[in-house]
């Protein structure tokens, strides 16, 4: 059996940037074990398998796998799938905005594909999340030690470290500038001896409210005990927690906020994510995530019958 796949660079306009996501637009006939094996073989952050569903020409069931196993939700997968479906002609972009229904394991995600001349220009989807925010955080000395930074790099003027979970807990840590985000190096020995493991957070979302890129308002980076020292993994799944973190501060005014966050750097796989959040200071927060993608490659997977 032959299955066509595409590789999309997501949350970028240019190839060789963003996060590499593989998409199989026609996955009928594949079982969970085979999908997991394909994802492991491709060895990309996420591999997306699409199936017709939802009784609509623009509806798809999607399964998402990393090399380590199945993923319940993926924001990068939504953007990649929309661009690939348009590229291979599986959906028609006849209107300026085309709705998509993508069913992941967490439920149905509504997405909108903006287009010009039948080519996608932006994919946006929304999530309604409820966050648990804990103001307990390790001491500055501990933070600096396991992040490989100086205490002076930490920012307490406008933000403070907090634990935020929208289903997956992150220790969110603010630093002063882009340079501090980039030079941080996770120290496992210092982490294990600190109070951080008691917070249940296994990933640190490090951010700075500054960027050398005029398109971005924040710079984000993920670090942690399960992330390699030289890895710079995608941050899309952490954006709802980041928005909830921003809304947990009293100085964040009520209303709709529109801003952009970046990951990576100009010399290697930079991503740009467009965000909107409706801060009503209520239990649930609506977050809209938007981004672009570039198709990098396509190929054939030839499985034995």
Would you mind describing this structure in some detail?
The protein has 6 helices and 17 strands. The chain is an alpha+beta fold. It has a 17-stranded mixed β-sheet that branches. The longest helix has 13 residues. The mean pLDDT is about 95. This is PhzF family phenazine biosynthesis protein.
What are the key terms here?
single chain; 305 residues; alpha+beta; 17-stranded mixed beta sheet; 17 strands; 42% strand; Phenazine_PhzF-like; PhzF family phenazine biosynthesis protein
The proportion of residues forming helix, as a percent range, comes to: 10-25%
Estimate the mean pLDDT confidence: 93
Strand content: 35-45%
Major β-sheet annotation: 17 strands, mixed
Q: Unreliable segments (pLDDT under 50, ≥5 consecutive)?
A: none
Calculate the terminal CA-CA distance, rounded to whole Å. 6 Å
Large-scale geometry: globular
Secondary structure topology:
Elements: E1 2-10, E2 19-24, H1 32-42, E3 46-52, E4 59-66, E5 69-71, H2 75-87, E6 97-104, E7 107-116, E8 119-130, E9 132-134, H3 140-147, E10 162-165, E11 169-174, H4 178-183, H5 188-192, E12 203-208, E13 218-223, H6 239-247, E14 255-265, E15 268-279, E16 284-291, E17 293-302
In short:
Belongs to the PhzF family. 17% of the residues lie in helices and 42% in strands.
């Amino acid at each position: 059996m032959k299955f066509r796949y595409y590789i999309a660079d997501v949350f970028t306009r240019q190839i060789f940037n963003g996060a590499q996501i593989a998409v199989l637009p026609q996955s009928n006939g594949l079982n969970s074990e085979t999908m997991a094996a394909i994802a492991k073989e491709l060895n990309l952050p996420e591999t997306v398998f699409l199936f017709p569903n939802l009784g609509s020409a623009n509806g798809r069931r999607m399964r998402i796998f990393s090399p380590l196993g199945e993923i319940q939700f993926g924001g990068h997968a939504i953007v990649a799938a929309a661009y690939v479906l348009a590229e291979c002609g599986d959906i028609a972009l006849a209107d300026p905005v085309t709705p998509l229904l993508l069913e992941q394991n967490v439920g149905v995600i509504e997405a909108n594909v903006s287009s010009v001349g039948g080519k996608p220009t932006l994919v946006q989807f929304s999530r309604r999340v409820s966050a648990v925010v804990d103001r307990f955080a390790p001491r500055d000395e501990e933070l600096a030690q396991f992040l490989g930074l100086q205490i002076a790099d930490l920012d307490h003027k406008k933000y403070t470290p907090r634990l935020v979970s929208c289903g997956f807990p992150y220790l969110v840590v603010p630093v002063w500038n882009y340079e501090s985000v980039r030079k941080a190096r996770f120290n496992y020995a210092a982490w294990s001896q600190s109070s951080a493991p008691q917070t249940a957070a296994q990933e640190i979302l490090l951010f700075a409210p500054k960027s050398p890129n005029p398109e971005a308002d924040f710079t984000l980076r993920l670090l942690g005990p399960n992330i390699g020292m030289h890895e710079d993994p995608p941050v899309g799944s952490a954006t709802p927690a980041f928005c909830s973190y921003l809304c947990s501060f009293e100085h964040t005014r009520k209303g709709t906020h529109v801003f952009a966050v970046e990951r990576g750097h100009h010399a290697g796989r930079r991503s740009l994510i467009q965000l909107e959040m409706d801060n009503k200071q209520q239990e649930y927060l609506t977050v809209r995530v938007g981004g672009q993608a570039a198709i990098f490659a396509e190929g054939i997977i030839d499985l034995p019958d």
